Amino acid sequence: MVPVAYTVLFSFNDAGKTNLVWRGFTLDAWQNPCGAPQVCEAFVNSLQVGVIATLIATALGTLIAIALVRFQFRGRPLVNLLIFLPMSTPEVVLGAALLAQFLSLRVQLGMTTVIIAHTMFCISFVVVTVKARVASLDPALEEAAGDLYATPWQAFWRVTFPLLLPGIAAAALLAFSLSFDDFIITNFNSGSFETFPKFVYVSATRGIPPQANVISSFMFVLALVLVVVVQVVGAARGRRRRG
Amino acid sequence: MAAALGDAGSPTPHATPRVQSRSRGWVPLLLPGLGYLVLFFVVPVGALLATSLYVPVPGGDVGQFQPALEFSNYTDALGQFWPQLVRSFAFALLATVASLIIGYPMAYAIAVRARGHKLLQGLMLVLVVAPFFTSFILRTIAWKQILADDAFVVQAMQWLHLLPPDGRLTATPFAVVCGLTYNFLPFMVLPIYANLERLDSRLLEAGADLYASPLTTFRTVTLPLSMPGIVGGTLLVFIPASGDYVNSSLLGNNTNTAMIGQVIDARFFKVLDYPTAAALSVVLMAAILLLVGAYVRRAGTDDLL
């Protein structure tokens, strides 16, 4: 936790351009979070990539998870392996592999290639997270819906999907945080497109503006609030269910 | 992710009724995602393999290569960069062991000791996960400043004679392993937590009833039951740590802390030597798959797949 506290503390530093030594308390950076060149562009880029990659990865991953748990078919071990492999490959290799492909196809690196890369490594994490939730779900519920003359489509949207939602939400949150904070894969596939982690890494040598600390602290607080809300809602639901 | 890895076992039998298993409903569910992974994971790994065998275009510019079957790329790359490769695995192993030693008690405290105090448990979990949401790189830079020569930690250690007066922590392998451990610790804590959380306290009581000391109970009941979590956590720390180069480039110096990721990055972007970079990536991937395969087989949890 100390480095986090440090990051938050230094967002209040009266630093001027570089943010290495404590020079006194100020709210300057908080009042003007976009004050440093490019920091907000990079932040917005990261948000866009994160949201798009999360949406695609969550949709594709959820479908795979449902298929894997609910259906028996030949080749399932192979599918499991294909899900497991990207997770057990270091990021440098994933980044390098995609770069090798993009280079040989002469694809222009930029936002699109970053989104493609992020979606790719997020899918596996979504599958694993949602799979756990699907496995704990009783398929009898869907059959009951069918008995009550619901079409499979209705049964899915009215019964299965709401029950899966907490798992899907957790997976999406995970995918977003992985994408938002990813540096290595992004660095390989971004060309001159700059994300927030890349901005921080590049400016590390010439001094990171306190605005970067502001943005990081802001994300941290946002995440805390989000987690607390999820916990409180979960607890309230639990209490209601127990009656 | 933690719960995910803990739960990733095979589904319960009732989850696969015969009616559905005969249908072909899985095809439309599976195809889009699998197609994506084939297109952007399997094919790129193929491209990586191909690139690792390329040769420079005769008379071409730097960074121009043509397809070939130049297997000496591998022997050349390994001959030149084996120290960085070995160092990567050594650092990753040290960081994994350190995070297991630090992380297991943390997970145990949250899952077992804090049982019944839902609020405390939630708070502790949030504290483990929360660093994820601040920038990974900013936190590493904060580490760098905490371990800096003129900072409190180093000065206190010098005062206590734990470090020689001219000793330092930054730019040492110690700092890199510290950084790796710090950054990947949550990946160790969460799977073990998810595992211990489902541990039935009655089993512990039964152990005590049978006159086992707390230590014996831990050794014969708790530890074996938390093995899947330990295996999952170990993999989740070791794999990314061995490929990481942010820690070694920010917290280390280049001569005796460089890891293989740094080399791959430099070969790609500074030297434009794609075949060597690709060959090193292939070696790294193969080595990790072999290690992970052997480890998973030994630890006996095929459930991970």
Distance between the amino and carboxyl termini of chain B = 14 Å
The spatial strand order of the largest sheet of chain B comes to 1-2
> Based on CA inertia axes, which overall geometry of chain B fits?
globular
The oligomeric state is heterodimer
Q: What is the ordering of alpha helices and beta strands of chain A?
A: HHHHHHHHHHH
Mean pLDDT of chain B: 81
Derived from helix and strand composition plus strand pairing, the structural class of chain A reads: mainly alpha
Percent helix of chain B: over 70%
Number of strands of chain A: 0
Largest interface by residue count?
A: A-B, 91 and 85 residues
Using only C-alpha atoms, the radius of gyration of chain B works out to 24 Å
Mean pLDDT of chain A: 81
Q: Largest sheet of chain A, if any?
A: none
Strand residues, percent of chain B: under 5%
Number of helices of chain B: 15
Structural class of chain B: mainly alpha
